[in-house]
Amino acid sequence: MMNKKSPVQARFVQIKSALLDEIERGEMCPGDKVLSENQLAESFGVSRMTARRALTELVTEGILVRSQGLGTFVSDSRPMSSILEIRSIDDEIVQRGHSYSNQVLTVDKVLASEQQSVWLGVQANSVVFQTKIVHKENGLAIQLEDRLVNPTLAQQYIEQDFKLTTANHYLTKIAPLTEADHSVEAILPDNELAHILDIPIAQPCLKISRRTYSSKGVVSYARLYHPGNRYRIGGHLDFHHAD
Hints:
The chain is an alpha+beta fold. The protein is built from seven helices and ten strands.
């Protein structure tokens, strides 16, 4: 015979459901502050421990986020990539417990323009490799990766099956990363980018420009385009353990 739920558990579930309903109806939005444990306990007529359990579970589930000394807030549900480290996007997606897939648009040899030659540190009009790949999370496009690669340092790059590996995984293996520089800016997509990412033409995007180096020189220059409503970047700095 199945045991009945205890009254405490029922009230704890009730608080969770009420908070989730407010979020789903748009009455609470990302960044909004949630009632404190004491306020929830008084509002629902329960103990502070019961209110704490409801908040703790919602934090664990990623619905809410705690900020020490400030309170508990509705979390921004967009995936977040660290600006402080370089990781393969498929690893990021799988770590979030989501499914990764991609669409390979271009794998080609091109003649470097004056600007592209500067980016890669090669002669203008020399042959370089270019790939354009759409990365998807749960079937939804979250990044267009437009990458130029120095063929001198990655001779077999365009022979890879990018349905089975990412550019990041392959390049890290054959030309280990020693340095990188990148910039982040907000842009509006043109018609082609909006079509590729399946977003409205008025949807702002994040553009990350990243140049990576190995011990032998510049390996690649990538422009990474993300729909602003599906993606964000951030990171955590710990100043307590500085040298």
